[in-house]
Amino acid sequence: KFFIKDNIKKLIVTLILILPIVALLIKIIQIGGDYFFVYAWLFVTIMSLIIAFIYPNYIAPLFDRYDPLREGELRSSIEALAAKINFPLAKIYVVEG
Questions:
Q1: Are 56 and 74 within one domain?
Q2: Are residues 11 and 56 in the same domain?
Q3: For the chain, N or C: smaller number of CB within 10 Å?
Q4: What is the domain count for the chain?
Q5: At what angle do helices 2-31 and 36-54 cross, to 10 degrees?
Q6: With contact defined as beta carbons under 8 Å apart, do 59 and 13 qualify?
Q7: Are residues 56 and 79 in the same domain?
Q8: Residues of 24-48 as b/e, b for ≥16 C-beta within 10 angstroms?
Q9: pLDDT tens-digit profile of 78-93?
């Protein structure tokens, strides 16, 4: 049941993201002239960065449940390690999916 539901969600999310990106990429190739590959590369690079930025906050929660890690020894150890290496730790989640 969950397998089918997740695959349907994945298909919908993929279509929503990929169709406009591919349409724009085709347009860039059509109007790009001799240097279309440079414009296409820039476009794909920028889109990859945007998707990488939005994925953890907006796409991943559609498929898995993210709960904040409760106070305890594990959380304290993670926070201590992050402080030791000056890692900007903002949130710690447990993923159930």
A1: no
A2: yes
A3: N
A4: 2
A5: 150
A6: yes
A7: no
A8: ebeebeeeeeeeeeeebeebeeebe
A9: 999 999 999 999 899 9
